[in-house]
Specification:
By secondary structure, the protein is an alpha+beta fold. The chain is built from five helices and eleven strands. The strands form two sheets. Strands 1-2-3-4-11-6-9 form a seven-stranded mixed sheet, with helices on one face.
């Protein structure tokens, strides 16, 4: 059974608080850097609120991390093999978007993330989520419309997209099936 972070929100909440405190930041400091209210951040750290994918991406970006990196830090303790039962899984409470961090933690600047986006759902990320990283999206199943700024990419199974310069982006699964894809994140 995988670790489902939305059922064990305290793990992610603890990581957000640990990252904030390691930098010597107050909640107000993190709020200013992330654009998320101090009250919401407090609720997240106290496990009184489940953050959405966009909210977590903004928090991760404020820490200089990718969303994948923040989720991985919440659950991983190293090793060459990351067994499926130990792979951190997080579900967006708003969209049902599910991301599984599949790559073992290492000093390598690469993360592999398996994503399932329910048919009809969309999830958006700010340009800051793509700063200092390169992304590749490889569609494994379903269809995926990826909106990169003003450009729309309509992906079919097997298509692989390399993202351009950081801009606001939206992933949309037009259906009828869920979009299932692998994201390769390479930090610069």
């Amino acid at each position: 059974m995988s670790i489902l972070i939305d059922n064990a929100g305290q793990v992610l909440a603890h990581r957000v608080k640990k990252e904030r405190e390691a930098r010597g930041w107050s909640l107000a400091d993190l709020a200013e850097r992330s654009g998320i209210s101090k009250a919401m951040l407090s609720n997240i750290e106290r496990v009184a609120a489940s953050p959405t994918a966009g909210t977590l991406a903004r928090i991760a970006s404020a820490f200089g991390l990718t969303l994948s990196g923040l989720v991985a830090r919440a659950e991983q303790d190293g090793g060459q093999v990351l067994r499926v039962a130990q792979q951190p899984v997080w579900r967006d409470p708003e969209t049902g978007y599910v991301r599984r961090h599949v790559s073992p933690q290492s000093d390598m600047p690469t993360d592999l993330v398996h994503v399932t986006l329910p048919a009809g759902a969309s999830v958006s990320f700010p340009a800051s989520s793509y700063t200092f990283v390169h992304h590749y999206i490889w569609l494994l199943g379903g269809r995926l419309d990826f909106i990169e700024g003003e450009t729309r990419h309509e992906l079919q199974p097997g298509d692989c997209l390399k993202l351009g310069a950081p801009v606001d982006c939206t992933y949309h699964a037009p259906g009828p099936d869920d979009a299932v894809y692998l994201v390769v994140v390479m930090r610069q």
